Structures are given as structure tokens and as C-alpha cells.
Amino acid sequence: MRILFWHVHGSYATAFVQGRHDYVVPVTPDRGPDGLGRARTWDWPASVREVAPEVLRDQDLDVVVLQRPHELALVRRWTGREPGRDLPAVYLEHNTPRGDVPSTRHPLADRTDVPIVHVTHFNALFWDNGRAPVRVVEHGVVDPGELWTGELERAAVVVNEPVRRGRVVGADLLAGLSAAAPLDVYGMGLTGLHERWGCDPMSVSLYEDLPQHRLHTELARRRVYVHPVRWTSLGLSLLEAMHLGMPVAALATTEVVDAVPQEAGCVTTDPVRLGSTVRELVHDHEAARVAGKAARVAGFERYSLDRFLADWDGLLQEVAR
Question: Over the stretch 207-228, which tens digit does the pLDDT of each residue have?
Fold first, then answer.
């Protein structure tokens, strides 16, 4: 099957393109948001081909996986085909609803010809999907291996753009959590975090834009993974940390309560308890090791790459008939 999709979320796309299909990814000269092309910091197979927009009309496409509302117009303009009518389509919704939750209406809620594919059951429940067919394909991640050593008595956090996104991703909690253990924060858009959210540079270190393989290696050296996010879909970095064998201290929000068992560390809505667990795990390597083993088992049982790709295969075959 030949699948058209945009490079929007690197970690998700990295799992998605591990399937047995051919993947067509638009690329523009500026490699802007609508034409990023192939990933540069993730490992993608040769089955992912960059294609310029002006030649998409000549491509033999079986299905398009949409991820942003304006991609409907891009498909019309670049391929000359109507998604859902002339070209089979699904809409992959990565995000939790924003605004008047749970009454936020999905942009495709009035269409019956393009299924909305949610990445968590929580998202499917909280979006108003209207008349649209709804499917859930839960996350799957490429297994980085059980790399955890926990040799450093520090806690790791992965979060993108915490200065801009603020309370949504728990940026306001980092200063308090750093009193429990030194924090190493990884991600994009970290500049200004100390000043904006009152973090002490001596207890909160920032590491920006690491390649995925190096990120995994560095995470695994830290004693515990902290997930302070209030309102996003289930973070792939959290699932990757579980696959690494890291113990987890996470806020019990959105899908986390289903994804992370208590024996993997701690899942709570109490930031004080969250900090206490971080402190305990950082100072008890054996307890952290046992919790990390439980996290890896849970990650494999529910979020394996094989299950993820099989679910997508079934859905794409259904849509492309």
C-alpha cells in the first residue's frame, strides 16, 4: 500500500513507518511545516520517500493519513483529489481537545467519509466526534532496549516547549520537583525555562535537541523518569522511558492512569506525593530497578510496535477497500 502522510510528529512517525508499506512524505525547498520530508534525528527506513508537491498528482496513492485540518486543502491542491471521496483517507488526531472540554467539537465531526483515529481512548471519549466514524489505535514505540542503569542520582523529564506551553505540560511543577532530586530536562524550546518558571539552574539542567539514540542513552543513566504533564495525549517519551526500564513518577492525568501501573513507580494527582516518590527512588537504586522492570513489562504488554502496526494495517485495509 502507498500511503501519503506529512512528517508532523517525529516520534509517532518513526513508529508508523516501520510497517510493510511505501510511505510518501511531502518535501518543500524550505523544509517548512508542510514539507519537512524525511526525519533527520530519527532512523527511518528506505520505504519512506520524499516527494515534491508538484509531482503528487502523478503518484499512485492508496490512502492519505491526515493529521491537521488544513491538510484537506493541501490534498485537494496537490493531488487534485478529494480526501474521503477520490482518495481514501483517515484523520489521525494526536491531541487532547482544547477549549470547552468535553464539548470541543472535532474539525471533522460533520464528515462521515473520513474516520477519526484517536491515539488514546481518553481522547476518543473527550472529543465531540459528531457523526464521524471513530477508531482508536493506541501508541506503539520502537523498542530502544532495556538500557536503564540508573547510575546517576538524578531525575529525567522530556518536554517540548515548556516556556510556551507552561501549565499544560507541568512546567510550573519543575521547580518544586527539583527540591526532591536534581532534574535533567530534555526537549525543544527550553530557552528561558529557568527565568519563566523560577527554576534554579543548579538543580534544573537543560538539554535541547538531542538525537533520539543519544536521548535514550542519557535518559537510561538517570534514576527515575518524571512525567509532570497535565493535559496532553499520552507522551511517547513516557512510553519509551518505560521500554528503557525506567521507573516512572507521573501525574494521574489523561491516559496515564491506564498506561502506567502503580508498581512502576507512582501515579498520582498530588504533586507532593510525586516529589516524595522521586526522592525515594533516587535514593534507593534497588527499588528503582524493580519499579523499572514493572514499567518495561507494562510497556511491552500494551504498547508494542508489532501490535501498533497490526492495528494500523487492519484499519488501512478497511479504509482503502
Answer: 998 988 899 999 999 999 999 9
CB atoms within 10 A of CB 151: 11
Tell me the pTM: 0.95
Position 34 in a domain: yes
**CATH number of the structural domain spanning residue 192:** 3.40.50.2000
**Whole-number percent of the chain with pLDDT over 70:** 100
**What is the residue range of 52's domain?**
2-140+305-319
Q: Mark whether 95 and 37 lie in a shared domain.
A: yes
Amino acid at 36: L
pLDDT confidence of 42, banded at 50, 70, 90?
confident
> Looking at the structure, do residues 61 and 17 belong to the same domain, yes or no?
yes
- Those residues whose C-beta lies under 8 Å from the C-beta of residue 280, and which sit 6 or more positions away, are 287
Which residue stretches of 21-113 are H helix? 71-79
Q: How far is it, in rounded angstroms, from Cα 140 to Cα 119?
A: 10
Maximum Cα–Cα distance across the chain: 60
- Is residue 291, in this structure, part of any structural domain at all? yes
- Judge if 298 and 310 occupy the same domain: no
- pLDDT tens, position by position, 103-158: 999 999 999 999 999 999 999 999 999 999 999 999 999 999 999 999 999 999 99
CA distance 93 to 106: 9
Residues 100 and 118 occupy one common structural domain: yes
pLDDT at 74: 98
Mean predicted confidence (pLDDT) in 13-22: 96
Q: Which residue has the cell 508508523?
A: 16
User: Beta strands of 120-221 (E only): which ranges?
Assistant: 134-136, 152-158, 183-187, 204-208
Yes or no: say if 52 and 25 are a contact pair by the CB < 8 Å rule.
Answer: no
Whether residue 254 sits in one domain with residue 293: yes
Residue 41 has pLDDT above 90, yes or no: no
Flag whether 147 is in a domain: no
Structural domain total, the chain = 2
One-letter amino acid for residue 40 of the chain? R
